[in-house]
Predict the structure of Nitrogenase iron-molybdenum cofactor biosynthesis protein NifE.
Amino acid sequence: MSEALKNQVAAVLNEPACATNRSKDDAARKKGCTKQLTPGAAAGGCAFDGAMIALQPVTDVAHLVHAPLACWGNGYDNRGSASSGSDLYRTGFTTDLSELEIVMGQGEKKLFRAIREVIEQQSPAAVFVYSTCTTALVGDDIVPVCKAAAERFGTPVIPIDVPGYVGSKNLGNKLAGEALFKYVVGTMEPEVSTPYDINIIGDFNLSGELWQVKPLLDKLGIRILGSVAGDARYAQIAKMHRARVTMLVCSKALINMARRLEETYGIPFFEGSFYGISDTSAAIRTLCAMLVERGAPADLIDRAEALIAEEEACARAALEPFRPRVAGKRVLLYTGGHKSWSVVSALQELGMEVVGTSVRKATEEDKTRIAEIMGTEAHMFENMAPRDMYAALRAARADVLMSGGRSQFVALKARVPWVDVNQEKHEPYAGYMGMVNLLDAIDRAINNPLWADLRTPAPWDAPPAPAAPVTPLDLSAMAGTRADFEDC
Ligand code: SF4
């Protein structure tokens, strides 16, 4: 690993805004979060994968992976991050290095040619170039190649130095944020600045979730000036430094970026969620209060309250028919990050009982919120092997499992309905009306008549019905007597 990358990894692991780091003593903090990497540590996502997840939703950029084909091929387009404009982000570009090119040291030249080809053919707003294990190990230095290509072709070419072996997916998220901050933020100026300009970081617009919330912001006149989120454009990253407030939707992934925006440009940030009615209202309230503190007209707060009252009333009316169909149902939640608490509170609002929630990828703050919402820490669990999840579903007598696609077969095996709440889902669950979509999905899953059939034992497995008791013949009741037959 190059010295520069080693220093950057150490700095990212020692993130001062991270609650886990803040809770450590000086000695432990100095050590950072470095862990000895073990074989298989990248299973489930390497640093390169994490960087792609964080940045691929930037839609008008060509994402060029400098690697043999497999790095990109494995993770290609596995998220439902929606775009209202360019579809360029959904095309996979890779230098597709062959063994011969690696052995002959032709990687950097091939990368330069690939950048030229993608700019000539696609005219992207920018090219993001990702390094990977193979190209980093053979010593390809993407930084000077990107610099030379940008100067030659007049298009920004941004190096994202994230070889998978440096660590986990989460580390890759943060390294991607570092690259954006170093090479992109502050490179363009907005035509006009308003006191209603905000940044959004870490929402991926999965199935168009951000579009459930943006109309609310539009009604209040709030503009998403800067964005590292779904449906983002390159220019929105470049102009982030002019926003008044940053909303961080998933603090675990890109908190370093929000903290750097605060330290460098004085833009305060907060973490909020658009999952659930109360959390959506709380996020809007916080956003407006912070904007007013930073110079927006004070009537913004009254307008926000009026909007919240109207939207909450609408959403609660739409939820009412579902309430009797889901109230009292028991949910096992296996997701991560901010959803581990925001979905809990949303379900509890509807009278459902959350029997457990995972705290994978959750920060210390996330865990504190779960404990507050659920009243105890007893229902939190970390990663769960499929066998344990099966046992938990049975032991808790769960009525539904809400998780990502990888767990769906565990639910089916346990004959428990399943609802997808992770990145591959096809329905938007954010904002007020997102809750209605979520309840509709839960209702469809739980009250599907197939579950009653599925749980009924098959006819050949059912215990045999007890035989009808044999009534002894009452000969005395028969017509005639023994004497009647003796003469025959
Ligand atoms: S970057 Fe490395 S760990 Fe990640 S997919 Fe490529 S080879 Fe695998």
Observations:
- Residues 42, 46, 48-49, 67, 71, 74, 132-133, 163-165 surround iron/sulfur cluster (CB under 6 Å).
- The radius of gyration is 29 Å.
- The mean pLDDT is 85.
